[in-house]
Write a structure and sequence with these properties.
The complex is a heterodimer. By secondary structure, chain A is α/β, with parallel strands linked by helices. Chain A has eight helices and 18 strands. A seven-stranded parallel sheet of chain A has the order 7-11-6-1-4-5-12, sandwiched between helices. The longest helix of chain A is centred in the C-terminal third of the chain and has 19 residues, at 303-321. Chain B has helices at 37-53, 68-77, 92-106, 125-133, 189-197, 234-244, and strands spanning 2-6, 9-11, 19-20, 25-26, 33-35, 56-62, 81-86, 110-114, 136-147, 150-157, 160-167, 170-174, 200-204, 212-218, 227-229. The chains are: A alpha/beta, B alpha/beta. Strand 10 (137-143) of chain A pairs antiparallel with strand 14 (212-218) of chain B, so a sheet runs across the interface. The structure holds flavin-adenine dinucleotide (FAD) and adenosine monophosphate. Adenosine monophosphate is lined by residues 6-8, 36, 38-39, 60-63, 89, 92, 95, 113-114, 116-117, 120-126 of chain B.
């Protein structure tokens, strides 16, 4: 009857999203009066799972699963759910979790709710609040099947410590050839940069920056804040920045603690994608720019003056608070 | 090569989102509908296959008669034929069952769907159809080549990308990158005229169940006013971010 959470790891270490789904899983388990089991792939130990409420870890160690494989992972998670008698399964909203989630819900015969913002408002009927219309609204969605799959929105629940004794067991799923029809050939990932999905802070810039040669100060500001860099759609369409940095309704969603928008007007499609960030700062020459209506803090000013000044002030602030 | 493009019919990105009937129904008043942007990138890539590698391109939408103008637009862009499965898109599972039946009957080499619909943001239909039909599946697909019985695809991952190979039949959840914004086609007069003559078949529903239902909607709480900081007083901004917002 336990709750099963899929805890993602990279090179053996758990990601922040893993601890967030663990925290959330514990919240639901408390509502249901049960415990939390985690499933992991090739993890080095249990990490902090116990700290976030997990009482049992099932770890699959299999060299064939070194690289992410949505089909095989989904198959294995479904088998773990069955073995544990778990009817509620929780995954994150990472690219990999969303990929396997759509396969997993079919294996589990589970109703699947994505972009879930909070603990269920009720567990019977099982009703969750999800973000829809790219954050322009919320839907209260009822899952009517016995098995349930919840895709938790990133950074919505946060990390909640809940010290628990966590045991680890090896889990060996039965995989079949059909699970290996898609094979990873190569991975191209900047290891020295935080990704938009994993970042606590995102520094984003738009057409107001005039040209790609002006991004040095954006990168410097991001580095000081330990932030990921992002951009508006036209900036990536013009090739000033890579497509992977395009955020908004048709790009990546941003749900960080802090989002800083520089030289971005705040078109509805842009705002939709970034509005679930907790604190938003806008820097723009035009006081009428729509972003000022969506932001918490604003500076009316020229990015080419404000950003370098902000960099200096932040350096001083960091030095004083180190 | 036989290609099916799954198109969801969604409110234009500039739409104001409102609800009626005591916040239980989406208010369609004044809303313009379009081809879901992710699907438009996929359809345009399908046209590339058609022109460069000789593929046939069918499009399908699950929905009532109101979705037909969207299918006609896809025909005007260049799809060869369209199917409307006559059923309300009740939830991801119901839509996936309808599409899985179309996929099973059609014998497609490639099914192109989108990463997500921008209305309900389910992000689940293509993967469900893949699992129901036993096809290979690649999500958040930003590049796709097909050579014989194998496809090479690039998938966006958090913080980078991944190149994968997959055996056909393949289903993708596509997005921008499959083609560039500047490759998108605006239907011309000739395309619109030709679209009127192309087949738009209506097939009956086969789905037997739903798994989820939306009970009600709500809108985000209105935001408070922005706090403005003078450009020559950035210490105040840092102070606010540190002490008030606790964001740095
Ligand atoms: C179907 C569709 C989907 C879309 N999806 C997205 C999406 O996902 N994401 C997205 O971002 N957009 C999206 N858009 C585009 C969106 O409508 C806007 O065109 C876009 O967001 C504008 O980008 P921008 O703010 O960088 O540029 P602009 O609107 O040109 O704004 C530039 C801003 O910079 C300011 N500025 C100029 N000089 C300076 C300076 N020196 N210092 C400070 N500020 C300065 C200006 O005052 C202005 O406000 C979409 C559009 C469509 C039609
Ligand atoms: N009613 C529908 N008819 C046809 N295809 C759909 C429908 N709904 C979703 N799809 C396809 O599935 C993708 C993802 O949709 P969703 O899972 O609803 O976010 C869309 O981009 C479409 O390609």
């Amino acid at each position: 009857m336990s709750v099963l959470v899929y805890t993602e790891s990279e090179a053996g270490s758990f990601k922040k999203a893993a601890y967030e789904v663990a925290s959330y899983g514990k919240g639901i388990a408390d509502q249901l009066g049960t415990g939390v089991t985690a499933i992991s792939f090739n993890a080095n130990g249990a990490g902090d799972l116990g700290n976030y409420g997990v009482s049992k870890q099932l770890n699959v160690s299999d060299s064939k699963l070194e690289k992410f494989n949505a089909s095989a992972y989904a198959d294995a998670i479904a088998q773990a759910a069955k073995a544990e008698g778990a009817t509620t399964v929780i995954i994150s909203s990472s690219a990999n979790s969303k990929y396997l989630g759509a396969l997993l819900c079919v294996h589990l015969e589970a109703g699947y709710a994505t972009n879930v913002m909070e603990l269920p408002a009720s567990t019977s009927p099982f009703t969750v609040k999800r973000s829809v219309f790219t954050n322009k609204a919320f839907a209260m969605t009822e899952i009517s099947t016995t098995n349930k799959l919840v895709g938790l929105a990133n950074n919505s629940y946060g990390l909640k410590e809940n010290s628990t004794d966590c045991s680890t067991e090896a889990f060996t799923p039965t995989l079949n050839e059909g699970d290996f029809k898609v094979q990873v050939q190569s991975v191209d990932k900047a290891s020295d940069k935080v990704s938009i999905a994993d970042a606590d802070v995102v520094v984003s810039a738009g057409r107001g920056l005039k040209g790609p040669e002006n991004w040095g100060m954006i990168e410097e500001l991001a580095e000081i804040l330990g932030a990921a860099t992002a951009c508006s759609k036209p900036v990536s369409d013009m090739g000033w920045r890579p497509h992977g940095e395009h955020v908004g309704q048709t790009g990546k969603p941003v749900a960080t603690n802090l989002y800083i928008a520089i030289g971005i007007s705040g078109a509805i499609q842009h705002l939709a994608g970034v509005s679930s960030s907790k604190v938003k700062v806008v820097i723009n020459t035009d006081p009428e720019a729509p972003f000022f209506k969506a932001a918490d803090y604003g500076v009316v000013g020229d990015a080419f003056e404000v950003v370098p000044a902000l960099i200096e002030k932040l350096k001083a602030f960091k030095a004083a608070n180190a | 090569m036989k290609i099916l493009v799954c198109i969801s019919h969604v409110p234009d990105t500039t739409s104001k989102i409102n609800f009626t009937d005591n916040n239980t129904q989406f208010d369609t008043n004044g809303v313009q509908y379009v081809i879901n942007p992710n699907d438009e990138f996929g359809l345009t890539r399908a046209m590339w296959f058609k022109e460069k590698q000789g593929a046939s391109v069918e499009v399908v939408t699950v929905g009532g008669a109101e979705v037909e103008p969207t299918l006609r637009k896809a025909l005007a862009i260049g799809a060869d034929s369209a199917t409307r499965v006559d059923a309300p898109a009740l939830d991801g599972y119901a839509v996936a069952q309808e599409l899985a039946a179309v996929v099973k009957n059609g014998g497609y080499d490639l099914v192109i769907a989108g990463r997500e619909s921008i209305d309900y943001n389910g992000g689940m239909v293509p993967g469900m159809v893949a699992a129901m039909t036993g096809s290979s599946f690649v999500n958040t697909c930003i590049s796709l080549e097909v050579d014989g019985n194998t496809a090479t695809a690039v998938r966006e991952i958090d913080g980078g990308k991944e190149t994968v190979s997959a055996t056909l039949p393949l289903i993708i959840g596509g997005q921008k990158g499959l083609v560039e914004e500047s490759d998108l086609r605006i239907p011309n007069m000739r395309g619109i005229m030709m679209a009127r003559k192309k087949p738009l078949n209506v097939t009956p529903s086969v789905a037997t169940a739903t798994e989820t239902k939306t009970v009600s909607f709500e809108k985000p709480a209105p935001k408070g006013d922005v706090k403005l900081v003078a450009a020559d007083n950035l210490d105040q901004l840092i102070d606010l971010l540190h002490n008030e917002a606790k964001a740095i």
